[in-house]
Amino acid sequence: MKIAILAGGNRQQATSTLLARYVKKVVEQRSYEVDLIDLHKEPLPFYSPDNGDVPPAVQRLQSTVKGADAVVLSTPEYHGSLSGVLKNALDFLNFEHFDGKLVLVCSSAGGSVGTSSLTQLQTIVRNLHGINSPEWISIGGQQRNFGEDGEPGTEEVKARIQRTVDFFLALAAKVRQH
Ligand SMILES: Cc1cc2nc3c(=O)[nH]c(=O)nc-3n(C[C@H](O)[C@H](O)[C@H](O)COP(=O)(O)O)c2cc1C
Q: Entry's SUPFAM superfamilies (predicted)?
């Protein structure tokens, strides 16, 4: 299985991107192929239906998600919602990229939890005909600390992320069999 990860942070050390990178590491440890698009490092133009041409960054986004068997979306909690850069990226995508694929949503929040962005992301996934994973990942407050090795600062957070990624991969494989 191939997994596509979209990291929706928009700064160098975005904790939602560090979370996405750690999810990538866990997926690779389970011997699955994974491609992560960091929307801060690979910025996209603003989506406009008037704009017919497809620049390389948009082509890469569309082909990566289309070629994946399952998708992970990671966002900072911004005003109780997802980031603008992630929403803009999702506007370039449609049914042909998500149809029949399991999607895991993840968030990082300044407060203790960031579930408002997660429920809003799941609404978007449903409209894209993706299949929402019933388990999601929210880190907040002190849980946003990552070591220089890219690992979460506590064993508890590490174990919680690993458990959710394992659940997601097992369910994604079952969904793909159908
Ligand atoms: C524009 C903006 C809005 C934010 N809104 C919220 C919010 O509604 N709830 C919250 O817990 N944190 C909020 N935060 C804090 C971020 O969730 C926090 O910086 C977190 O680390 C995620 O961002 P990062 O991925 O860039 O690290 C906000 C930050 C910014 C810049």
A: Flavoproteins
